[in-house]
Amino acid sequence: MLRTISSAGRAAAIWLVWSGCAPASDLRLYESVEPHMGTLVRIKLYAESDQQAAPAFRAAFDRIAQLDSALSDYKPDSELNRVCRSPAGHPVKADPDLFRVLAASVALSEETGGAFDVTLGPVIRLWRRARLDHRLPSSEALADAASRSGYRKLHLDASARTVMLDLPGMQLDLGAIAKGYAADAALSLLADLGIRRALVAASGDLAIGDPPPGRRGWRVGVDPRGSDDGFERVLELSNAAVSTSGDAEQYLEIGGQRYSHIVDPATNIGITRPIAVTVVAAKGIDADSLATAVSVLGAERGLALIRRHPGAEVFIVTGSSAAGRVVESPGWARLSQPLPLR
User: Fold this and answer.
1) Transmembrane segments in this chain: where (predicted)?
2) What distance in Å separates the CA atoms of residue 112 and residue 116, rounded to the nearest whole number?
3) Which run of H or E residues covers position 121?
């Protein structure tokens, strides 16, 4: 979640930090918010006039809506769901956006040994229903859903740009990568329109362009656990992306056990060990997917994953309440500082 803040308060996860008035500039700051991809998408940009800003907002939000229509597993007629309904074993032509996201997903699946897996849709749908019903999925239902999952059952042909699924009843779920990609795409479109000083926030996934006039970067506050417990940090970023992952807002709690909305493909169970992850990377598609992968892998293996991605940094908090343990990549300190007192 991202919200602008003043000294009156702030919101959990990610928010913008104001640090006084910007130096004089011919550019003005504009902001617009629209609902897309199941959340509120906020765009901030610097433009010369209302006449430049208004069509830029419209084009950026339309691009996000276009991607939602292609990548959503909630929309029955999305391109993603049309692929999932195609006959098993038959390659299906995919548009460039969908293929690009699937290719990045498969690459991360292979790198993490399946800790990141967009074929987990049947299992994820069971856990969505479980959160609504406040009831754990049965072992039989999980076994059936898991039999229709597994990234090795998804096949891509880059030369033909086709997608093939091995089994009927498979369901792809791009919830851990699509918002980051959409934020990238909107930011890129704004740059094509001549607006490079901009920020696109799709809930906890931000793509960030050139800095505001006279500043080194956009100041972004991060509270990984959304609990105001001393782990808050402020980042100053430009031409980068940042994503958060954790169970501060989406989880199922039964019998004193919390099950995250993030499912471990190795067990098909929502993660039960408390972990909150913030990743900074060059692109939103990477920050978004890496944050989920680190959540599944855990602190040590997650840190090793981040070290294999040049330019990526991570801040991990494990455990609960004030007893949380912090693990961070070597370059995190140069990006962040503790949240200033107000």
Assistant:
1) none
2) 7
3) helix 121-133
Q: Would you say residue 110 lies in a domain?
A: yes
Which residue positions form the known binding site for Mg(2+)? 176, 288, 292
Range of the domain at 89: 84-165
**Is 264 within 8 Å of 148 (Cβ atoms)?**
no
Q: What percent helix, strand, coil does the chain show, rounded to 5?
A: 35, 30, 40
Distance between CA atoms of residues 49 and 26, nearest Å: 9
Residues annotated within a binding site: 176, 288, 292
pLDDT (0 to 100) of residue 322: 63
Number of domains in the chain: 1
Q: Write out the two tokens for 315.
A: 């801040």
Separation CA 177–CA 170 (nearest Å): 18
Q: In the prediction, which pLDDT does 321 show?
A: 62
Strands 13-16 and 2-4: parallel
How far from 100 is each of 155, 171, 192, 223, CA to CA, in Å? 13, 18, 20, 31
pLDDT at 25: 65
For residue 93, tell me if it sits in a domain.
Answer: yes
Separation between Cα atoms, residue 233 and residue 58, nearest integer Å? 32
Q: Give the CATH number, domain containing residue 145.
A: 1.10.3980.10
State pTM to two decimals. 0.91
Q: Whole-angstrom Cα distance, residue 271 to residue 202?
A: 23
Q: What's the pLDDT at 325?
A: 87
DSSP type of residue 115:
S
Closest CA to 287 of 208, 187, 180: 180
- Tokens representing residue 58 in the block: 């419209």
CB 31 within 8 A of CB 43: yes
- Residue 306 forms part of a structural domain: no
The tokens 């039960």 sit on which residue? 272
- Domain assignment present for residue 122? The answer is yes
pLDDT at position 28, please?
96
Is residue 209 within 8 Å of 183, Cβ to Cβ?
A: no
Residue 337 is predicted with a pLDDT of 72
- Taking 50 as the pLDDT cut, the residues of the chain under it are 1-12, 19-22, 24, 341-342
